[in-house]
């Protein structure tokens, strides 16, 4: 044995410790070497009962013993420097842990369940309980596991290097809840860092940053009925109205602390069910160091944040959602990651997960790094991560954050700060390819769907990959959102000059599978809360909100509303506080709250509002030309043409009597929803009783109704007989 090997082991720079440590055949028998820096003396205890003293081979704590035969199973008896004795298993007597096929697929970028091979896995090998660790660090000289089980000794457990830059080791005695990091010494001289496990299933509670050993399969799910039904569901033809939630600020305990996952299951889940939402959309729950990022700067992609409990607590929350018939969407952030030293940034001293060229690999305005979508292992990491949440946590949908930042090389960059693609364009071809593959794999999970937060006119975001699209199920309609806020901020007296803002979205409404968002981004950073965006006195502000939401629910597309909008709170969202639940003691606020609940339930009860969201067959204008009155009217239709609802929207505070609209079919109609109902805080103007059509042609229709239009309101009518 080369003495330099011992120096390298002790010095923490030996790239192949298994070639030195553990049992090895030699010319005249076998030798067992162990690195035991905390031992004064050591001896092998053989399975058959023999005891073989070990000689000190290096003053740094390397011991060795020579045997005539294969030692087989053994343990090591230590006499410690501090006094006392200890018996340990030797991590270096265990052979290869990962299969060559696993390693090959990882390098190829097609191991889409990579979390099953990478990270920390509790297991039993040869009757020994412990943990298998595996991490990718291709440009590391050596990688060691340091943690609570080895006194955080950075060099105590150097790992075995496999092809493709994967490092692995089985450490006996490691248990659930033990914390750890990887000490990564780079091939770049002088560069080393303690890193969290990119595949860790749990983490310490921030601001602490260590990864935590956690067994994934221990939780017993009780949502089988939901999961089976989900697999048969076509979400394009089902109601989808999402309640977007930031868990930390939804509600606090009396002591001012955020609710944990199990407390949220007890309070948030029944609230969402009572309010009539179909889904909860969670702002990122993956572990992140800075709470002020709202979760969008992720360091622990495979770990639900420990701020609110354990991974099993989070599974319990999802389980309870499903048992109450509520789906769960989580925000997923594959577009960028933070520069925190313990995270993915320059993981092995080089640009491992990110692009080396900062013109490709950095978002300067966010202070974050961009994933290298051209690298197989990185694509593997991200696609596996998406499937991890869908499979291991039963997540129903993934909302992909900041898709535009991924699609365009010049996103947020000035001239000279970006590199064109091989065709000279600004599209990130590698990211586009990644997104397509991600969507293909995600949609193989029965009933799962994906949502793109994409703010540009990039074509085919929600078109199938086989048709040249990106493959998302839905796309956020950011254009609709900006037009609507621009219109509703305008004093009703002048809305006739901006009439096109409430009609323009129907020009492109069926080019994508749109979801209409009123998200957290629109009620923060000086943009004003939903109610504060509205003009007029208090009554008019609330009436405007009700009219806005009414039109939103009548407009084609799925729905999303950020928490707190249902309360009518004037303050912008404060991530450090909680929602203004105290407002429900006041009439207007309570009325708006009741309105949102009943609007949700009405939406879910009307197939015309969700069955044909993405085709002209489900929508028909009655009249969009009444600019001077700021009135629009339209028909929403279910798959069966005879099932329809008629919508009339009056966006001025003027009651309009004897207002005539053409309707699709003659017969008896009834007003089935009215945002001006007194119960909601409105004026109570309504069309009560029976409404019979008359043979008076208008709007190109032979039959029509004469209506009284409530002020700043949306009213809905249904044919109930002929």
Q: Termini separation (Å)?
A: 98 Å
Average residue pLDDT: 96
Question: What is the highest CATH level, the class of the largest domain?
Answer: Alpha Beta
Question: What's the CATH architecture name of the largest domain?
Answer: Alpha-Beta Barrel
- The strands making up the biggest β-sheet line up spatially as 17-18-21-25-26-27-28-29
- Structure class: alpha+beta
- Measured by DSSP, the beta-strand proportion falls in 25-35%
Helix proportion? 10-25%
Q: Number of helical segments?
A: 15
Largest β-sheet summary: 8 strands, parallel, barrel
Low-confidence stretches: none
Question: CATH superfamily assignment of the largest domain?
Answer: Glycosidases
Count of β-strands? 37
Q: CATH fold name of the largest domain, please? A: TIM Barrel
Radius of gyration: 31 Å
The domain tally reads: 4
Approximate shape = elongated
